[in-house]
Specification:
It is built from four helices and seven strands; from the N terminus they run βααββββββαα. By secondary structure, the protein is α+β, with helices and mostly antiparallel strands. The chain has a seven-stranded antiparallel beta sheet with strand order 1-7-6-5-4-3-2.
């Protein structure tokens, strides 16, 4: 996805949860730092994910482990245009399960990048992640058990 903003601004949008919450998750425990763990929360779904930050290359690359490996690359096309690519890999399970995980990941990251583009270029919060599955919205009181390490929860 090309985003018409400088690479430094686009990279920062994925490092700083004060910005990322405008288009993806609802809470982040802090800025991403190499070698440290963060936590991302999607309150509307009663979900959270521990995120191990493996590598950061300022304005160029982010690599995390959150059950799979997700890598963002930021390529400056000009002083005001950045191409962002997300690669998610390391899916586990039977072949059909892996295919479904890859499809879901592609869909999810496409929504995130579209939301980032709208917010960074126009200041518009499209609420794409929030509105993706309105039937799955939960109240904190509905979460029965702790989440497993894939960020999944069981509901009463």
């Amino acid at each position: 996805m090309m985003i018409r903003r400088p690479a430094s601004e686009v990279y920062e949008a994925f490092i700083d949860p004060a910005i990322t919450t405008k288009f993806w998750f609802t809470q982040g425990s802090g800025r991403l730092e190499a070698g440290k763990q963060a936590e991302w929360v999607w309150e509307m779904y009663g979900a959270k994910a521990p995120v191990q930050v493996l590598e950061l290359e300022e304005n160029k690359r982010i690599l995390i482990d959150w059950g799979t490996r997700a890598e963002w690359t930021f390529t400056a096309l000009s002083d005001s245009e950045t191409h962002v690519t997300v690669t998610d890999y390391g899916f586990q399970g039977e072949p059909d399960e892996i295919v479904q995980q890859a499809i879901g990941s592609t869909e999810g990251f496409t929504i995130v990048l579209c939301g980032a583009k709208a917010y960074l270029e126009h200041g518009i919060q499209l609420n794409l992640v929030h509105d993706k599955a309105p039937y799955a919205h939960v109240k904190v009181s509905e979460v029965r058990d702790e989440q497993d390490d894939r960020g999944e929860v069981e509901f009463t």
